[in-house]
Amino acid sequence: MNGFLGRLVGMATGVNGWRCLLLASGWSVLFCGLSVRVNAAKRETSPNILVLVADQWRAQAFGIEGDPNARTPHFDRLGGESLRLVNAVSALPVCSPTRASLLTGQRPLRHGVFINDVPLATNAVTIAKVLAAQGYDTAYIGKWHVDGRGRSAYIPPERRQGFQYWKVQECTHDYTNSGYYSDSPQQLRWAGYDAIAQTRDACDYLRARDAGAKPFLLFLAWGPPHDPYLTAPETYRQRFRPADMVVRPNVPDSLRGEVQKILAGYYAHANALDDCLAELRRTLRETRLDENTILVFTADHGDMLGSHGLFKKQKPYDESVRVPLWFHWPKGLRRSGALPAPMNTEDLMPTLLGLTGLTIPGSVQGLDYSRYLRGGLNPGNNEALILCVSPFGEWERRVGGKEFRGLRTPTHTYVRDLNGPWLLFDNRSDPYQTNNLVASPECRFLLNQLDQRLLRKLKRDGDHFEPGAVYLDRWHYRVNAFGTMPYTP
């Protein structure tokens, strides 16, 4: 029997092998049918993965998180049906570093993308390359921001990090005049508000899946609610009056009016994305892909929006570092609710590979939380590293920006700058982080504990916490007076 099947396999490898199999005995038919069924079963059980990445959407800005300004009914419904990592953080809360970590499972000082507009190496081991090698179709739509060769430049296939289907621009925030590239150097345009057009393209991609098609990995990377804040479609902007916006208690009174105007635009963008999510989920149900699709929603970083008198990102405060990180998979995660583990950016890739049952590459630094999501133990030490390697842009030195390393735990935030301990907050009693305990005698033991945990973590990573100029020189990055890489070559 075994010898006979072996001869059939041998014949199948020849030029006319398929004819030999068809002309052989009934055993060959059975063998062929079994092979097809096994492959089909593998395709059916391998989960699809849909990753939604918003730009600059902080973790607090949802109805489900108690934000009085948010109108996010569809996100709130998804959040209620998902596992929400409520202490998840963006390790280096700025665009390019986070995106490189999402793709590689590595921290910024390993992959080298620790400021904006520098390239991720083409030989990087990415989630798309790993899954493509395992038979997945891979697709990316929207904002990329890890090519580093100009924000409007064409990105050829060899620099797409394993993604096959491709409708991408490196970076733009001109949401109603947004370009992208597909399979040629000719720049194309999204019709209207780009997030809506990109979502429709993602829905078309989902509808094109055949019943027996290979599993897929699809990244949909929206530009909003990143500034400019007042550019959402008029329909959405009309729903948010500045005077109605509730300002967080840690926003200075002197900024209240300015912040209310910004908040109205920010939440209008978020409301538009809420409708985009509704269309995506409707399409997943219509195509019967919803049960076996791991749907992840996250953001590359948050937005200060006036808290502590600061704006945008890069800062170590919760408005900047905390991001949504939600997992929804009806077939594989049969529970929902809030989980306290402080997952970090680099943990997403290994966790997704863990959920699919695939081997995690040795290049990965992040932790696999897949068992934790299924009810198992937390694989981490309840601490997530947050850092700024070389401050730039709105966090440049002339406005107080500086390098830092810190830990975000479920209960505390502790941060060092180059001179030593800088910030210590008890996030339970002080959720708006207005009481810095770093000089408090009562907190000396806690501070020393957290400091030792941080230093051990840095030592394990080989991070000597040097001035930003050291790392810029090491990676041969040449920045301008604002610490920023040029946006164009």
- Our count of helices gives 15
What's the number of extended β-strand segments? 14
Overall average residue pLDDT: 91
Low-pLDDT residue intervals, each spanning 5 or more residues: 1-43
Oligomer status? single chain
The secondary-structure class comes to: alpha/beta
Please provide the ordered H/E string of secondary-structure elements: HHHEHEHHHEEEEHEHHEHEEHHEEEEHH
From the N-terminal CA to the C-terminal CA, the straight-line distance is: 65 Å
Portion in beta strands: 15-25%
Major β-sheet profile: 8 strands, mixed
Query: How much is the radius of gyration in Å?
Result: 24 Å
User: What is the 3D form?
Assistant: globular
**How are strands sequenced across the largest beta sheet?**
4-3-7-1-8-9-2-10
Portion in helices: 25-40%
Keywords:
alpha/beta; 15 helices; 489 residues; eight-stranded mixed beta sheet; disordered N terminus; globular
Give a structural overview.
The strands form 3 sheets. This protein has an 8-stranded mixed sheet, with helices on both faces. Strands 11-12-13-14 form a 4-stranded antiparallel sheet, covered by helices on one side. The protein has a two-stranded antiparallel sheet with strand order 5-6. The chain has 489 residues and is an alpha/beta fold. Strand 5 and strand 6 form a beta hairpin. The chain has helices spanning 2-12, 17-23, 26-45, 73-80, 95-104, 108-111, 127-133, 194-207, 234-237, 256-286, 318-321, 348-356, 370-373, 444-461, 468-474, and strands at residues 48-55, 83-85, 137-143, 165-169, 179-180, 188-189, 216-225, 293-299, 325-328, 337-339, 384-388, 404-408, 412-417, 420-426. Residues 1-43 have low confidence and may be disordered.
